[in-house]
Amino acid sequence: MISADNLKLTFGKGTPLENPALRGMSLTVNQGEFVTVIGSNGAGKSTFLNALAGEVIVDSGRIEVDGQDVTRLPTHKRARRVARVFQDPLAGTCEGLSIEENLALAIKRGQRRGLTSAVKRSYMERFRAALAKLNLGLESRLGDKMGLLSGGQRQAVSLLMASLTPSSILLLDEHTAALDPKTAAFVLELTQDIIAEQKLTALMVTHSMKQALEVGDRTVMLHQGQVVFDIAGPERKGLEVKDLLDLFEKQRGLEVEDDSLLLG
Ligand SMILES: Nc1ncnc2c1ncn2[C@@H]1O[C@H](COP(=O)(O)OP(=O)(O)OP(=O)(O)O)[C@@H](O)[C@H]1O
């Protein structure tokens, strides 16, 4: 379960570039819920995920994961609770290490690390079985460097890494955006399977309105660092991409209005 209460975060405080990215962001995500997150550029989606992961520390507000206050914990102290897959397939894995070594690091996430002890024979069968499920033939390429894999293969391995150890929450930041449509569909299906199988609590940022409505159980829209729209259940099922786009445009319209007020 994730509970974010009234998060505020301003970048570049006291400088001409002062930028309030989170302006009272509150969201509760129940155990096992899969929430899609949309919002225009600069709405605060990545900043919110970064705050949950500990990449940035909020100025005020409170973040709880499974009831534990993690608001001020650094990333490495949350690593066992928070798994993440990024938009850039290069971001979540270590290209100079082999598939096997990457998986071994993932299994030791949040614990003291040591590569020599990490790459243990006991893990190998588990890795092979997990990789075989991807149907990409990677189970026979455990020794290959991550850098040799395609973007889609890397994202698939990143997802596997995120799910190897039981984490409380999974954060997906436009993780299919850099992939071609066919590979994106494959990775998205894999995502849904892993989340359902492991009953993960997940947040997925996407720019695709279609994806936002078709995937997961609930959709939230962020605008100017706040949740402006939150829909689930039958109400969400009745919503079409066009409705969501209209809402989106309405929010962007407000933004223009705000700007014109400021400039006026
Ligand atoms: N490290 C940073 N330093 C300064 N400003 C930042 C930083 N990270 C984000 N911002 C600013 O905070 C605001 C929110 O950015 P964020 O990346 O969270 O938006 P987003 O909704 O993820 O946008 P996009 O869809 O374009 O990825 C933006 O104005 C952005 O420029």
Automatic annotation (TrEMBL):
GO terms for molecular function: ATP binding; ATP hydrolysis activity. PROSITE patterns: ABC_TRANSPORTER_1, ABC_TRANSPORTER_2. Residues 2-249 form the ABC transporter domain. It comes from the Bacteria. It is a peripheral membrane protein. InterPro entries: AAA+_ATPase (IPR003593), ABC_transporter-like_ATP-bd (IPR003439), ABC_transporter-like_CS (IPR017871), ABC_transporter_ATP-bind (IPR050166), P-loop_NTPase (IPR027417). Its main location: membrane. It is found in: Cell membrane. The keyword DNA damage does not apply. Belongs to the ABC transporter superfamily. This is Putative ABC transport system ATP-binding protein.
